[in-house]
Amino acid sequence: MTKRHHGKRPWTFYALAAFFTLFVLFLYGPMFAIYILSFQGPSGGLTFPMQGFSFDWFSALVGQQRTGDIKGAFGRSIALACIVLSLTVVFSVLAGVAFRRRFLGSSIVFYMAIASLIMPGLLISLGVGLMFQFLGFQPNWYSSALGAQLTWTLPFGLLIMFAVFNRFNRSYEEAARDLSASTRQTYQYVVLPILLPGIIAVALFGFTLSYDEFPRTLLTVGPRNTLPLEIWVMTTNVTSPALYALGTVTTAVSFLVITLALGSIALIQRRRSRLVDMSLPAAAASEG
Amino acid sequence: MENSVAKKRAGTSRRKISRRKFLKGTGAAAGLAAGAVTGFPTIWAQNIKDITLLQVGGSYSSIIDIAREATKDLGFKIEMQNLASDALVNRIATQPESLDIADIEYWMQTKLAPRGVLQGIDLKRFKYWDKVVPIFTKGEYPDGRKVSDQGTLPYEVQYLEAQDGTAFAKGPTDWASGIPTVFNADTLGMRPDIITRPIENWKELLNPEFKGKTAIIDVPAIGVMDAALAIESRGDIKYGDKGNMTKEEIDKTIAILIDAKKSGQFRAFWTTFDESVNLMASGEVVIQSMWSPAVTAVRARNIPCYYTPLKEGYRAWASNSAPMRHLTGLKLDAAYEYLNWHQSGWQGGFIAKQGYYSSVPETAKQFMSEDEWNYWYEGKPAKSEIKDPYGSHMENAGHVRDGGSFWERMGNVACWNTVMDENRYMVQKWNEFISA
Amino acid sequence: MTSPLQRIAPYLQVAPLTLVLLIFFGVPLLVVLAVSFFDYDEFDIYPAFQLTNYLELWSPTSLNLYLQTITYALVTWALTLAIGFTVAYFLVFHVRSFIWQMALFLLCTVPFWTSNIIRMISWIPVLGRNGIVNQSLIAMGLAERPLEFLLFSDVAVVIAYVHLFTLFMIVPIFNSMARIDRSLIEAAVDGGASAWRVIWEVIIPLSKTGIALGSIFVLTLVMGDFFVVKIMSGGQSASVVLALSNEIAVLQYPPAAASAVILLIIVTLMVAAILRIVDVRKELAG
Predict the structure, then answer these.
(1) How much is the pTM?
(2) Is the Cβ pair B81, A223 closer than 8 Å?
(3) Which residues, including other chains, have CB under 8 Å from residue B11's CB and lie 6 or more apart?
C-alpha cells in the first residue's frame, strides 16, 4: 500500500518534522520537571531547587507508608484499564460494523452515545452508585466503576470506528467476496487487518481513558481507590515527590513495553517479507 | 482472663521500650508490638478476627499507619480509604452501606445526621468522654468562657436527642453524633524573610502592599470565611456570624472580593496541599491561608515560613468518627472497640507529630516523648530536633511552635469551618466572583 | 438475498454497547432528570415537580459562565485543529513506514500514562514566576521580568487544554486521512495544483469526517471539564461543570441536576450543528 520512495524528501518534510518535534516537546514539557524532580533529595519538595539527589522517592513508592496505598491502587488501575480496553475494543468494533448498515434505532443509539460523552461524570458516578445501593449490590472497581468507565470509553471507541470506517474502500471486501470468501473470512483476513491501526487506536484510547479516569470512578469505586483517586486525595494533604517518581517509572515502563512491541512487529514483518522473497523464486521455478 | 492480664503486663514493659524508641526518633511504624496499648483487646469473641471495618475519610486523618496499628492491637481488621471531602460526603449520603466508620468534619454532621445514615454513639460505652477537652463536651474553655460559635461549633452538633435521633440536642445527652478525633486552628502563613514587619491582623491578606502575592484556599465555604475574617479586620463589615452570613453580608463580601480580584490582589486560589506549599516555597505568594502541615513542609525545605497568630483569632476545624447506621451485633461491638482504641493514645501521638491535636490529650501524651509534648502542646522550645512520624526532620532544636501552646491557639478561635444556611446563594455569588 | 441471520446481525452487534449504555448511562440520566424537578432544603431533597431549579439557571451569572466555557471551547478547538491537522498530515503523508507511524504515535501517548493530576501540578514549576520557562526567557534576554500570565490565568487554562486534548483531534483525523486514495492526490498534482490547493481542495474535504469527530471530542471534553480550569486558573476562572460540582459538594442535588440537563441540551445542539455540516453517518455507508 505504501510505495517506497527512494528519492529526496521535500523541504516540507523537514518543516513538518520540526513542527512535530516541537509538539512532542510541548507534550513532554511538564514531564521534564517530573523526571528531574523525582530524584529529589529526602527533604525536597515538588518545585526547584533540588535539595540533593536520591532514590528515596522510588523506594517510597514500593513501601506503603506516607504515600498511601500507591502500589495497590496502581495494580487496580492497570487491571481495570486492561478490562476496559478489551471490552471497549470488542463492543466498539462490533457496533461500528453494525452502523455500516441502517438499522432501526440507530439514531437513538448514536445520540445516546453522544449524550453519554457529554454528561458530567460526577452525575454518572452518583447515579450508578445510587443504583447499586438501591439494588443492594456492593460497589466495586470491577463492577460499578467498570460500568461507569465504559460509558466514557465506549462513545470514544464508537466514534473512532466511524473515522476508521470512513473512506474504507469497499472494493477490497467485494474482491474477497468474489473470490468466494465467507463473511467471517472476509472480516478476518481482509477487513480487520486493514483496520488494524484504527483498532489499535481504540484500544489505546480505551486503556488511557480508563487509567486516567476520575469523575466517573469517584463514587463508584467501592472500598478501594484507583490510582487517580489515590493521587488526588494525597495531593490534598501530602506533598511528596513519590508522585513524581511514579510518573518517571510509568514512563520508563511504557517506553520499554512499546519498544518491545514495535520491535517484535518489525521482526515479524521482516520475516514475512523474507519468506515471500524466498518463496517467489521457487514459485517461479515451478511455474515455468 | 489470663490472656489479657499477661498482655497488660507485657504491654507495660514494651511501652517503656517504645518510648525510648520515640526519643531516638525512629518512625512510629517500627516495631510496636501487639498489646502495647494497655487494655486491648477487650472483646474476646471467637469470630471477631473475621470482622473487617472500613473507615473512609480524608488523607489527613484516615491514615494507613493507624489502620495497621489498630489491626495489630485489636485482633480484627481495620481498613482505610481516602476520599476528598466532597466525594466523602456524597458517598456517605448515597451509599451508606458501603462503609462502616465515617471520618468526617463536624459541619458534615449537619448534612448527614438528619439523613439518618449515621448511628448515635452510646457514651456509656466510650471510655474517655470525660477526658475529652471541654471544647467538645461542653462548648467552653476550662475557665468557663464559651467557645466562639461562629460557624459550626462542634458542641452544637455534638449530642443527639436519641440514639436513632436525627435531631441535635441543645445540651449534653448520652448520645453523641460522633467522637471528636483530630482538630486544629488555622491561620495565615507567611514568609518572614520577605515580609519583615510583624503581621498581626487578618486584614493584611487584603493589603495592597502584597498585591499579586496573596492566595486563599479554593473551597468556597472556607475561602469565604478567610475573606470575611480579613474584611472584618479591615473594618468594612461587621458580621453577625461569619460562618452564617445573611444575603446582604454575602453580597458585600463578594463585591469586595471582586474588587480585590480586579485590582490583582490574588495570585491564585489553591486547590491542593502541594499548590499551597509550592506557592509559598517558590515565593509566588508571600501571605496566604494555609494548613499547619503545609507550613512545616515549607520549613522542611529550609525556607522560612511562619504560621502567624493573629489578634482576631483562628479559624478552627475538627473531625469526628461515627459508625454507620447499618452496623449491628458483633460488628457494632467491634466498632466501639475501635473507637475506644482510637482515642487511647497511639493515634493521638501519631497525628500530634503532624501538628494536629487529639481530643484526648491525656492519652496522646503517653505516646509522645516529653520534648515532643512540650513542643507540640505546651508551646515550649524544642530541646532536640523534632521529627515527623516517619522520622524525617521537621523543626530544629530551639524552635517554638508558631502560636504557642494548645490553649494559646485553641483558646483564640474566631470561627469554625462550616457550610452556611445561605450556602446555595453564597456558591452562586462565589461563581460570580470567579467568573468576574 | 439477505438471510434472517444477516438481517438481525446489526442488532446483535450493537447490543452489547447499547446494553452497557442503557444500564450505566440511561438509568443515571433518568434519575438526574427526575431529581432536577425536586425540591430541597438544607437537609434533604424532596420529590416534587417544580421548575424553580431551571428558572434559577436563567441568570446573568449562568449566562456568563456559559459564555466563558464556550469561549474556552472555541479557542481550544481552533488550536487543537490547527496543530492536530498538521501533525496528522505529517504522520500520514510524510512518514513512510507503518512501524514509524505507530512509534511516533505512541510517543505522543506516553505522557498520558502519567496521571493527569500529576501533570497538572507539575505545570507550576514549569510556568510559574520562577519556573523553567520564565527563567529561560530571562536568561536568553527575551524578557525583563517573569511573565506572570503564563500561570493561573486563562492562558494557562488554554495551554493545558491544548496539551491534554490535541491527541483527541489527531486520532480521528489520522484515521480519515490515512484512507484517502493516493491516486486522487497524484491526479491533482498532475493537474497542476500547488501543495496548498491540494490540501485545501482535496485533503481537507476528504478528511472532514475526522475533523468533525475530533471537534466533537474536543468540544465535549472542554465543556465537561471542571478540574483543569480549577487548577490552572488558580481558582479564578469558572466553568459550568465546576459550578455544578460546588453544589454536589454540599449535597444540593436538584440544582446540580438541572444544570446538567441544560448542559446536555446545549452541547448536544452544538454537536448536532457539527453533524449537520458533516453527516458522519452518511460517510460511513458510502
Answers:
(1) 0.85
(2) yes
(3) B35, B36, B37, B38
